[in-house]
Amino acid sequence: MDFSSVVANMNILLGKYQPRIFNSSWIRTHAPHCYRFIRKNLRGEFGGIDWDRLTYALDRKFQRRWTPARRKKNPAPYEDQSEVDTLLRKYRDKLYVFLTSLDKQDRRIRDVIGIKFVRLAQNGNLLARQKLVGLIRYTVDGWIERDYFLSRWRGYEDEIQKQVEMCIRRYRYTGSFVSYLFRTLTCAARGIRPARFYSLEQPGSVIVM
User: Fold this and answer.
1) What pLDDT is attached to residue 206?
2) Which of 40, 109, 121, 135 is a plausible cystine mate for 129, CB 3.0–4.6 Å?
């Protein structure tokens, strides 16, 4: 058995039983052979099982049904640079994906890195949150530059940071974190009036951005 066969088996079982939600206990009961593989081979950088790797690979319709173990609502904040450095060393050649993602594989890598930083931040590591906010801002700035609707965020630097930090706190299901952030900014942008700039070429004319 390998990872691909585990994912395929899980999709089949989830399609067969159609549970409203599922978690590690459900997998252990209904797919013990898959659970044994996962427990042995899908280990996170800081201990424990990397459930994000599994659930991200499942069919999208099943991803939102994943219900992981509850995390502490307000974990004690701490600063651990070694945790941040562990991820940076592992993905140092891939950090360009936050600046430019050329294809589906790049976007997948961006999500993998982003979610790992999200989990550290949710555990209370303030340095991980700070680093992720810095990385993801390259992506957000690209959206603002290229997307007409999201260009409304131009000039709202503090509010953008608040939205990013809010998404880091609230992210739960293991689909795309970047897509979740994009949808959040898109919805919130509806309440922002487009900036108006006066044209230097035609006095009195207005450009709506």
Assistant:
1) 36
2) 121
**Using CB atoms within 10 A of its CB, is residue 28 exposed (0-12), middle (13-18) or buried (19+)?**
middle
Distance in angstroms (rounded) separating the CA atoms of residues 80 and 116 = 15
For 56, the token pair is 């991200």
8 Å CB contact between 195 and 152? yes
pTM recorded for the entire structure: 0.84
Report helix angle 126-146 to 177-189, nearest 10. 60
- Six-digit token pair at 115? 């979610």
> What is the residue extent of each domain of the chain?
3-63, 81-189
**pLDDT tens-digit map of 126-164:** 999 999 999 999 999 999 999 999 999 999 999 999 999
How is residue 158 written in tokens? 């503090």
196-198 and 206-208 beta bridge pairing: antiparallel
The more confidently predicted of residues 178 and 74 is 178
pLDDT at position 191 is 84
- Sign of torsion over alpha carbons 58, 64, 67, 68: positive
Could you tell me how far CA 203 lies from the centroid of its own chain? 45
Beta bridge partners of 66: 22
